[in-house]
Amino acid sequence: FLFIILLIFIAEVSAFVLGFIYRSKVGSDFREPLQHVFQQYDGINSESHAIDYLQKELECCGVNNYTDWNGSLWYNTTGNHSVPMSCCKQEIGKNCTGRLSEPQYLNTEGCGDKMVFAIQSVLSYAMLVVLGFAIVKFFGMMSVCVLTCRRDNGYDRLHSGVFA
User: Fold this and answer.
1) pLDDT tens digits, residue range 59-93?
2) Above pLDDT 90, what percent of the chain?
3) Residue 45 lies in domain
4) 34 forms bridges with which residues in the sheet?
5) Among 87, 85, 80, which residue's Cα sits nearest to residue 63?
6) Which of 55, 31, 57 is nearest to 112 (CA)?
7) 79 dihedral zone (left: phi>0; alpha: psi -120 to 50; beta)
């Protein structure tokens, strides 16, 4: 029983350490594929719908900022050199045309930092949960060790002195 708990404890501690090490790597490994998806945006395919949803929910535009749309497939094929309407500030609504010349109507902050922050936050909470379970397992192992290592000589004598 102790061996099984020890293996689970080692796995939990390993997961915590790996999560801590790779938490900072999320940013560098995430930006390049995100940049590629943004460059392939056409407003029709499923990836485009995911980007629209992301930009609306996080209130962001582009990977680093709204100027990332310059030179993208969308920017070059629309003819009006604009960003998708999902970049528009939600409170502005109807007045937004998506033109880069009107940044006051656009979410200017990029989605890359917001996504990395969200993923790192989730990873941090997961690491805290794993650490909590590891601490409980550690005390469980200590309890098992105390119970198995305790010497039991049968019944103990009562030394109260009242009936002696």
Assistant:
1) 999 888 888 888 788 887 877 778 888 888 888 66
2) 7
3) 2-148
4) none
5) 87
6) 31
7) left
Is residue 156 a part of any domain in this protein?
no
Is 157 within a domain?
Answer: no
List the structure tokens of 96.
């937004």
The CATH code of the domain that includes 80 is 1.10.1450.10
The angle subtended at Cα 17 by Cα 13 and Cα 18, nearest 5°, is: 115
Picking from 23, 17, 52, the residue whose alpha carbon sits closest to that of residue 121 is 23
Amino acid at 74: W
DSSP-assigned beta bridge partners for residue 157:
none
Secondary structure, 3-state, the chain: CHHHHHHHHHHHHHHHHHHHHHCCHHHHHHHHHHHHHHHCCCCCCHHHHHHHHHHHHHCCCCCCEHHHHCCCHHHHHCCCCECCHHHECCCCHHHCCCECCCHHHECCECHHHHHHHHHHHHHHHHHHHHHHHHHHHHHHHHHHHHHHHCCCCCCCCCCCCCCC
153 has a pLDDT exceeding 70: no
Q: Return the pLDDT at 53.
A: 93
